[in-house]
């Protein structure tokens, strides 16, 4: 067994990467939610002055990186690699942002699991001695996702109660091999926050056919990865401060708890979901938030600051992706899911 | 500088991963080309008995992996991770193949650069001590790509002379931390072939707007990565046996040579292109082959066997991707490209 492997799907980092800084940008609906005060930048208009929603999403992606780099005092030219993706066809958001930033780039597609996948691979590259720093990024945009995956917004289609709302947001985490410097410059970095372990996702499909019920499609993948992590590392949920999923929403979260319960694993009290956290029930957005941007902005605006402040010491962060396309749905295929996870710790 | 980094964008592996085995599957047009005898499996009909071209492509992806695993005597359950992607929206080919194979999976999107990106990241995971083995895969299919990116095939649209034909093919390379075993079982592995170095791609855009001229859109990215590799490793082209690009085609290859020439770097005699190699001029397929599957099948059916046989000792393999989408093209965006590279060597 290779030296950093624990069990079937989990790695322990030998030189756990440091989390240096975050950037987060959201739209006005997200800013009206319970985490509204915590985001770095709020768009007043969802085109951000661009000629299309797609161009606006790309600008958000780029600027989430620029904000995070500025906070840790890194120039763009010093960034050694960007890893990330988004929901749009051919991940054009990430690709065009990488062009604007002019940095080495690895494009990923894990649907809404992309933020965790980027953190996993960024940590592997840093721990393995290949990079000194890396930016891990993902984004989504309500209006670009609706028109690509569902219906033209102009139709005013009503969504069913199991539906979730795609978050308009981009989040970036900068990782580094060394502790963040806090020299003479005006920089805001995290304090002793490190990525310690990571668990690879597997594609899981329980035969869900309803593209308006993504939480149910993704919950089995989340359960599979959480159970793999606990089994591989010989832990129980009570040994962690929090287990946070990306965008299962209200219904998918209930399903996750039941699936784990069936295997004798009690997540209640430990489990939170970014999709549930990002909106308040008063906003009446059905089952909560979804999209690549959802875990990205909640991680970077809420979870990492809480870990840095010592409010949570050990958090399993996982993001779940639904891996279908409109074409496969039309061809009658069911919706498989995947979940990648990273264990983020505050050094004591 | 981290210990494995050479220059700005290149890594040297400390424990260079071994190339264990390959799998390749192609369609009948590819089988009629000059490399026709070398592929493991040729489809007689491009749906392979499935109900759609998309399902056929997925089956090709899955079976390219199964063929490669069988050749190195690895059971599917022993495969520690699959890395790969394809050209379809939401990389559904790779996702659904990962579901069928039931292995840990990292989905990548680098357009036609995906094969090289998968080899780069698979090598990083193995060299870093995270995995004992990994399968790196990519695929494309003429009919799925045409209908997604261009026109319904039923229209019989005539392609312009700069166009390339998307290769129907899937290729898989299995990498391992140790030399391949050749125990009592009937296995066919490579002999002393290792991934020694890798260069990260950067997104390069020279303002090409014509989606029927992808070679021109990708040549600048190929030039950028080749020059970064030579600069980072302090090499000249004559120190390598071959520099092989993925799918620049006839016109893109000419452009690459000119771009490098402008910088005083002579590639002539060393440069080959998988898109040029895969079809013969008699087939009258314009500028040659393209697509994720093009470098994947040429690498696995032709390049790796040649290296293993000692005909080439040191090969820089790079694959180039055009990173636009039909939406960005309609919105007037130009077409950026990216190229990732790996240096593959025969041990002496």
Describe the structure.
2 copies of one chain form a homodimer. The first copy, chain A, is of the alpha/beta class and 348 residues long. Chain A has 2 domains: 5-176, Stage V sporulation protein AD (Peroxisomal Thiolase, Chain A, domain 1); 195-346, 3-Layer(aba) Sandwich (Peroxisomal Thiolase, Chain A, domain 1). Chain A has 10 helices and 15 strands. The first copy, chain A, has helices spanning 28-31, 53-71, 92-101, 114-127, 142-149, 214-233, 249-262, 274-277, 293-308, 326-330; strands at 5-6, 10-12, 18-26, 41-42, 82-86, 105-107, 133-140, 165-166, 169-176, 193-199, 242-245, 271-273, 289-290, 314-322, 337-346. In chain A, strands 1-2-10-15-14-11-12 form a 7-stranded mixed β-sheet, sandwiched between helices. Chain A is globular. The model of chain A has no long low-confidence stretch (mean pLDDT 94). Chains A and B meet through helix 3, strand 6, helix 4 and helix 10 of A and helix 3, strand 6, helix 4 and helix 10 of B.
How would you sum up this structure in a few lines?
Two copies of one chain form a homodimer. Chain A has 348 residues and is α/β, with parallel strands linked by helices.
